[in-house]
Amino acid sequence: MMNTPESTHLPLADRLLTIDRRFIYLFVMLAAVIPFMFKVELDVEVTPEVMSVYSFIDKLKPGTPILLAADYDPQTQAENGPQAEALLRHMFKNNLRVIIMTLSQDGAAMAEMLSTSISAEYNKIRGEDYVYLGYKPYFGIIILSIGQNFRISYPADFYDTPLDEIPMMKNIHNYSDLACVIQIGGGNVTHAWLTNAHERYKVPLAIAVTAVSGPQYYATLQSGQIFGLIGGLKGAAEYETLLRDEYRRLGIIARAIQGMNVQNFVHILIILLTLVGNAAFFVKKRQGGR
Amino acid sequence: MSPIELTIWQTIGAFFTIAIFSFLYKDNPLYKIAESIVVGVAAGYFTVLLFWTSLKPKFWDQIITHRDGVLVIDKWWYIIPGILGLLMYFHFSSKFAWISRYPLCLYIGIGSGIAIPLSLQTFVLRQVEATMLPVSLYPLEAQSINNLLIVLMVVAALIYFFFSMEHKGVVGKTATFGIWVIMVGFGASFGYTVMARVSLLIGRIQFLLVDWLHWVK
Asked: Are residues A17 and A147 both part of a single domain?
């Protein structure tokens, strides 16, 4: 609500309850910008659900094939991007063979950028150390078809190289040839990976989802349908914490840790605004207002 | 991508980020331009992507292929789903809309056949199974307390949605406990939602300050 000349004569509680919302946007923006200017590093505690993904990948032997489904798009890049980068760095660090694909129509170019940039950090060769399959529409059907053979939906990779001509894919046909699937995204595609890949073909599955999607998947974690869960920017920061030495060695900013440091300040502001708003509401109620 | 190209693209990205954020002050032409461009580019991008990843390889190339430099008709039966797909467009005619129901029936039938058993297994049976936990408090451990809480809360939340009995007495008290359980769930979800939205804002600020302006290392 706008601040009118009349509102400036109102009691404090009324003025707080009728504050122009643009001031709140401004406070939030300042709380999100100012901490970037200072090197504040707060501890990120690693939760068991993130640790189990890290441990699973860490225990795999070099050369083990793994599927990374980067099913996210620009809308959720801020959360899923750091998750994907951390996971792929861990896989390449351990010399795993990675099949990267996407079932998000807006994510094809982003997943390609992810595969080329991270593989360059580790001097990985396309076709030998990793494969990028690209995007295919109708995610439910694609996930089911991979259970039979990758070649049904993906006769060729993103660069039009037939899968049969790619050395890495020689002995990889379906989920039974993979150590696990790690899906990054959220929403309907994650549901489809749970039903069509894990339940249908019993492939071990871990998910890295947006914070909005996180709570609904804790039930599947408790039921053992997924072996790990990386939730939102917090989950990505936890994974980066586990790979902190690797990030230092590469000289790369741990973006999720940096983001979570800022997030703490914004959360404090939101808590303060909630408390002030409620206090003003109760003061007004005691004064007989509505 | 050369550093100059990267800077140009990042500047374009920064312009659109600021244009979209300008809506927070008030609606303005800059925001409207950015919004229209996003919608237009997304629609165009998806159309082209769908053509090259689906229509051409999965339909056109299956029917017509090159053999010894000559175009030949190969899998002609792929025309049938093609025709069924075209029939969907009758939806736009008030007189012939009924025709679009036939391909739709097929689509829904196949979709339901795949989805119902798998969804039931994933989101009902496996969840019920995961709720059947030992509730003994001997020996008293964190896990046994967790198990008891899970069972009690699931039962209470289900009773809240059980409307065949009046919510009075024991049923009423359990249902009230169920509401509290549901509210705790909503609270956790809302907390995560706030975190997610703030993360998106931080992502954009990181792009502006770290990637574009290089103010923060």
From this structure: no
